């Protein structure tokens, strides 16, 4: 499996080579290892671990080890990956040294957020509290929370790229805000643990992404459009196609998360995502062009609205300036790589 991703993994290695100096012979604990973020973190960890001869290990918290391995049999080839079976809310505090923690559990599930908002809240908030308590017990060298750009609430249309110092918030009278509010509380929990226990917490406010292993049947527009393409279906946009998003490629995401974990400033959130905005209609048209000989039409259901455009696009100057990060993969390459992977696997 890793051979297929050689170019991407080398990109990650080349752009994180300087941040791994303190991790030799160390152990990382990862929640959310079975998701999109987690799989990319696992692949890049194994690749870097062996290339740099780090002799480090990673432990994945998962509810069902065998279910995960049935989808990712390649993991069995790498003894530096081990598992702890348990739920994020009450997993066992194992008696083993843990040096770093990445808390990447809790997907932005629209279905769960809509149908069971209290379960969403408990997973985000109680899960974060449990992992922070574990981090405190282990006296970790660094703790990374993957938060979300949703914490800012609705992005004002006049702000093209929203920065970390924006003081917006989700609508508290809307139960659909549970995921976003949960992430806000998770960040506050991190801040409290940093103040009370000097826990070195890092926060990554993540936006939208694209790449192999992206779910194609969820609420992500990019995944849905690619699924349409692979099924030789027209791409149908239910709205007017004007909302603006941005998409960071998965290998770039891994570079950013590893760098923030090892070199980020404590208790000082970083936006993680691309700063290059693209409308939903433009995205659909770019994807449709990858159809080959088959004609894929983009059908926009609603006429162009006179309302101001909706935006969900970060300002990433802080990551650029403080951590010397950048966007390594453009949108066209991201689309091509995501489609190619899904055609093969």
UniProtKB/TrEMBL annotation:
<keyword id="KW-0472">Membrane</keyword>
<feature type="domain" description="NAD-dependent epimerase/dehydratase">
    <location>
        <begin position="28"/>
        <end position="273"/>
    </location>
</feature>
<keyword id="KW-0456">Lyase</keyword>
<dbReference type="InterPro" id="IPR036291">
    <property type="entry name" value="NAD(P)-bd_dom_sf"/>
</dbReference>
<keyword id="KW-0520">NAD</keyword>
<dbReference type="InterPro" id="IPR001509">
    <property type="entry name" value="Epimerase_deHydtase"/>
</dbReference>
<dbReference type="GO" id="GO:0048040">
    <property type="term" value="F:UDP-glucuronate decarboxylase activity"/>
</dbReference>
<dbReference type="GO" id="GO:0042732">
    <property type="term" value="P:D-xylose metabolic process"/>
</dbReference>
<keyword id="KW-1133">Transmembrane helix</keyword>
<dbReference type="GO" id="GO:0070403">
    <property type="term" value="F:NAD+ binding"/>
</dbReference>
<keyword id="KW-0210">Decarboxylase</keyword>
<feature type="transmembrane region" description="Helical">
    <location>
        <begin position="28"/>
        <end position="48"/>
    </location>
</feature>
<dbReference type="GO" id="GO:0005737">
    <property type="term" value="C:cytoplasm"/>
</dbReference>
<dbReference type="Pfam" id="PF01370">
    <property type="entry name" value="Epimerase"/>
</dbReference>
<dbReference type="InterPro" id="IPR044516">
    <property type="entry name" value="UXS-like"/>
</dbReference>
<keyword id="KW-0812">Transmembrane</keyword>
<protein>
    <submittedName>
        <fullName>NAD-dependent epimerase/dehydratase family protein</fullName>
    </submittedName>
</protein>
């Amino acid at each position: 499996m890793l051979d297929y991703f050689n170019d991407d993994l080398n990109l990650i290695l080349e752009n994180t080579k300087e941040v791994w100096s303190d991790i030799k012979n160390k152990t990382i604990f990862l929640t959310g290892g079975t998701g999109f973020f987690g799989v990319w973190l696992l692949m890049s960890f194994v690749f870097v671990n062996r290339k740099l001869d780090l002799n480090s290990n990673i432990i994945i918290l998962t509810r069902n080890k065998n279910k995960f391995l049935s989808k990712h049999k390649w993991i069995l080839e790498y003894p530096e990956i081990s598992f702890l079976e348990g739920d994020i809310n009450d997993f066992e505090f194992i008696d083993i040294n843990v040096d770093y923690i990445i808390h990447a559990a809790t997907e932005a599930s629209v279905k769960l957020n809509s149908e069971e908002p209290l379960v969403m809240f408990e997973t985000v908030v109680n899960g974060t509290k449990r992992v922070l308590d574990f981090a405190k017990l282990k006296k970790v060298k660094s703790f990374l929370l993957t938060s979300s750009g949703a914490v800012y609430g609705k992005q004002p249309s006049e702000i093209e790229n929203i920065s970390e110092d924006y003081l917006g918030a989700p609508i508290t009278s809307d139960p659909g805000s549970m995921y976003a509010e949960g992430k806000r509380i998770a960040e506050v929990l991190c801040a409290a643990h940093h103040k009370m226990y000097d826990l070195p917490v890092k926060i990554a406010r993540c936006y939208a992404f694209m790449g192999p292993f992206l779910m194609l049947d969820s609420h992500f527009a990019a995944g849905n459009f690619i699924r349409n393409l692979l099924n030789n279906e027209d791409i149908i946009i239910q709205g007017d196609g004007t909302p603006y998003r941005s998409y960071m490629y998965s290998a770039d995401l891994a570079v950013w998360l590893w760098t923030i974990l090892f070199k980020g400033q404590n208790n000082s959130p970083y936006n993680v995502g691309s700063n290059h905005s693209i409308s939903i209609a433009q995205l659909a048209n770019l994807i449709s062009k990858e159809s080959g000989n088959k004609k894929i039409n983009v059908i926009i259901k609603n006429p162009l609205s006179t309302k101001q455009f909706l935006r969900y696009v970060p300002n990433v100057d802080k990551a650029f300036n403080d951590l010397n990060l950048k966007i390594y993969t453009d949108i066209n390459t991201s689309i091509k790589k995501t489609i190619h992977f899904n055609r093969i696997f």
